[in-house]
Design goal:
160 residues; minor pseudopilin epsh fold; five-stranded antiparallel sheet; three-stranded antiparallel sheet; elongated
Length: 160
Amino acid sequence: MSAVAAPARAWRPSAAAGFTLVELVMVIVVVGALAVFALPRALDLGAWRLRAFADELVATTMAMQRLALAQRRPVVATVTPSGVSFAYAAGGELARLDCPAAASPCIAEAGTRTVTFNAGHSGRTATSTGLALPLTIGTGGQTVQALLIEAETGLIRPAS
């Protein structure tokens, strides 16, 4: 008997190749959810920049208050609609925070106001209004964050 080799079978894809209807529907649902929730937030960078400005303002204000107390020198924060600058009362700028370029002015309150940390070398804070100083961060009527700098203590906190 001679050995006869079996004929080679050609490869053919099976009928089950491809995606099922359930898999396609799940992909469409996930893409739809991303389009509804994630995309608008990712594309609205203006609000993110304003929130970052507000966070940096809070951190810098607390740092300047600590600096004034540690060095026993008054530090004055000058608030304008386009930003905040910090300087020693006797002169010499320490820091400046300008509003984001696309959202200037970003502080809703009009006019120039000041906050003096370690006023009169007493450790107290004095505001130009004599009351707690409101800072509303936002642009175009949209408020991103409302802050309040307390008179006497200098505590900066979210406004309620």
